[in-house]
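Annex B. Sample input.
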Amino acid sequence: MVFLTIAGCQPTGTLQTESADRAMESTIESAQPREIQTPAGLILLAEAELTAGQTDQAILLYLKAAAKSTNPEVAERAAFLARQAGADVQIEQALDRWKAIDPDSRGALEASIIFNAERSRLDALEDSLTQLFALEPDYRAHWLASFWAGLEPDRQMALLNALTRVGSQSNNGSLAMVVTEAKNRVAEQTGTDWLDAWIESHVPPANVVLFRSRLELPDRQRAIAFIERFTEVKSDLNVRAQLARWHGLEGNRETALSILRLVIEEDGNRYPDLLTLGLLEMQSGNLDTAEKHLKSLLASEQYRSNAYYHLGEVAIQNNQDDLAIDRFLRVDRSELVIEARKQLANLAIKQKTPLKAHRWFSEARLLFPNFKHELYLAEAQFQTANRMADAAIPVLTEALIREPDSVEILYTRALAYEQLNDIRGAENDLRKILQLKPNDPDALNALGYTLADRTDRYDEALSLIENALAQKPESAAILDSMGWVLLKLGRLNEAEPYFVKAWEMSQDHEIAAHYGELLWRLGQQQKAREIWDIGYESMPESDKIRSTIQRLTNS
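Annex B, continued. Sample output.
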């Protein structure tokens, strides 16, 4: 029975095994790799190769996908990868496919311009440029200027020649400006001459006329005259606003005001022009009108701080000190923060509450940590200017804890020490500067002058000043120091040429005090008084001249 049962079951088992074997074979066959032909599949494989670091294989797969796909993004991706790590032929293949799929693609033409410019392929470069400006006659070409500047010199010239040829035939003002800028960087004035010829043969848009007029700067009169030649562009608000600014800088305030008032009537949201108009009205004494325009700027986040700062100035002119304080405290942007705190400090002195100035500077350093350095210096300079050097020392010492190697802070503290007659402290700070900047002429001069003016260490001072002068022979300050130390040494005739040269360069009140003293000692009292009078004109409150006269005349 057992044998019969086994025998009866055997065929069934054999058949099942054979069926399983055939199923397995079918599964194995279906699992064998097949060549992928669809763009989507090729892209998936390419991205997998990229993940695995197989960039070369990924590029080949993307090029194959681009050839099969009509989606320009596939060709763009192929071009990008080829640009990163492919051969020139692959880049060219991808770009050609991209342009074929999307002949109106600005991106494809821009990429082609970059590729051909970098390879100095002149014909292809010019073709791509011509196609781009034919596709978009008003194309903004400004990026080409920075791209051109980054090329090697020989490739710069190739691109510039192509831009010049295309630009000469095009009405595109943006391209004309790019060509002008590049040509002027290669050889001064050549771009300007080219643009003048371009303007003669085209109808120049307002932005080109404005660009060309700026090439006349710093001669603002010539810049204004150039714009005046093109009456058809003077209706452009940008042109008129620029004319107003130039007239204002030239002192033609009424002309500037009349132009800007009309500009703002047409477009009250031109915030830079509204700010300029407010300042011009303020300079003209039209404080109510200025305040109205400046208050309009409060609606603009970008110009709000400017508005509050200048509204503070208006309040000062109206003797509204408390209102001015409120407005200056609202200034919270850029360098105006520092200027506003200086104004607040002056108001504190005016109101005889100097401690408020320190509080306002300290508060600003907490609120605006990015300006801490400048605020420390501003407070200390304000204090030394107001004979409060004793208050400046702790402020500067605190700043040096944060920035122990700050030359600016060390120099400012040295001046404060000198004002307090602490010559040792001043010398220590100046020598620390010389440790940080060995043989720095300004530090050498400052130390040399301090020793000559405040001690009897004249030979040491002379050596320091000679070293400084050797490095900066045309510095009026160092020439003055040289004359001063020679005067202290009694070498009056040797001192005179240094004072003469310094005076010719700068009629500063300190130079006047020193030069006048030399002349007085040489017996030229009348000429000395003339020099002192001129010095007083540069700084009527000069204690330096006053104390010199009192010491020499006993009056």
